[in-house]
Design brief:
Mean pLDDT: 93
CATH superfamily of the domain at 3-33 and 104-117 and 125-259: P-loop containing nucleotide triphosphate hydrolases
Number of strands: 7
Distance between the termini: 37 Å
Function: May play a role in septum formation.
Organism: Egibacter rhizosphaerae
Domain AAA: 3-175
Shape: globular
Strand content: 5-15%
Family: Belongs to the ParA family.
CATH class of the domain at 3-33 and 104-117 and 125-259: Alpha Beta
Strand order of the largest sheet: 3-4-2-5-1-6-7
Helix content: 40-55%
Largest sheet: 7 strands, mixed
Protein name: ParA family protein
Low-confidence stretches: none
Bound molecules: adenosine-5'-triphosphate, magnesium ion
């Protein structure tokens, strides 16, 4: 049965979709069978795997707002299977609000395919609405991407409160795997100070070396592949491979972590 990870942070543009896609690709590299679920109406993950979200059907919208089984929506990509999204899901979110047990619909759908996968990675939208709550309800663990810049982590407390509510109401077993520092510029004292502050303030575990900034990350989606295929010489690629190894339960050799660029990143 698959372990389910929700990549969540209601702050926009902190590299949730990049993290979901890249860690999925890195888990596939390790030989795991991986499904990514695009739970964001913006469909960036779907686009990043080379699909045009405007022309796709069925998508998660048809699964959650209609009666298409999730299995029927799944596409095969060399780096990960994908349950795609489309802008229709924005309307679907409203339709979902009318449905009884709405928070559990995604969990139920994933249960139907979980035997076919080792890991399922859900990319959440930048809000704490019904789609994110559905993902948190379906997940075993949350992975929180945080951009280590001033004010960027101000919403993390609110996310942790939502996670506490989900534990109380819909998913008592939800765990927090930890956080990933994204778009990191460790050359500045500022970046390092914010990283330390996030660790201390929220008591979250840093899961991998900070993922350094590189324009290559913004280029990869246009080729429909992850950074691991597009250009895995960028240090962030190594950081995501460590994240995947960590989620797969491996003990990380400190030398590997070091080589991936923690020091003076
Ligand atoms: N390490 C990085 N270095 C430079 N750019 C990055 C890095 N990681 C992600 N990006 C870029 O930052 C932008 C935002 O990333 P992404 O779409 O993954 O964030 P998100 O949190 O999913 O956004 P949203 O909240 O809109 O869903 C994208 O253009 C992406 O290519
Ligand atoms: Mg996104």
């Amino acid at each position: 049965m698959a372990t389910v990870y929700a990549v969540a942070n209601q702050k926009g543009g902190v590299a949730k979709s990049t993290t979901a896609l890249t860690v999925a690709a890195a888990l596939t590299e390790r030989g795991l069978a991986v499904l990514t679920v695009d739970a964001d109406p913006q469909a960036c993950l779907t686009f990043g795997l080379g699909y045009d979200p405007d022309g796709l059907q069925p998508t998660l919208h048809d699964v959650l707002a209609g009666d298409t089984p999730l299995a029927q929506s799944i596409r095969q990509h060399p780096e990960t299977d994908l349950a795609p999204s489309s802008i229709d899901l924005a309307g679907g979110e409203v339709a979902l609000l009318q449905r009884t047990g709405r928070e559990f619909l995604l969990k139920g759908e994933l249960a139907g395919v979980a035997v076919s996968y080792d890991a399922i990675v859900i990319d959440c939208p930048p809000s704490l609405g019904v789609l994110t709550v559905s993902a948190l309800t379906a997940a075993d663990h949350v992975v929180i991407p945080i951009q280590c810049e001033t004010l960027s982590h101000r919403g993390v407390g609110q996310l942790l409160e939502t996670i506490a509510d989900v534990r109380k109401l819909t998913n008592p077993d939800l765990g927090i795997a930890g956080f990933v520092a994204t778009m990191y510029d460790g050359r500045t004292r500022h970046g390092r100070a914010v990283l330390a502050d996030v660790q201390q303030r929220y008591g979250l575990e840093l899961l991998a070396p900070p993922v350094r900034k590189s324009v290559r990350f913004a280029e990869a989606p246009h080729e429909g592949v992850s950074i691991l295929r597009y250009d895995d010489r960028v240090p962030g690629a190594a950081a995501y491979r460590i994240l995947a190894a960590r989620l797969a339960g491996l003990v990380i050799d400190p030398a590997w972590w070091e080589a991936a660029g923690t020091t003076n990143a």
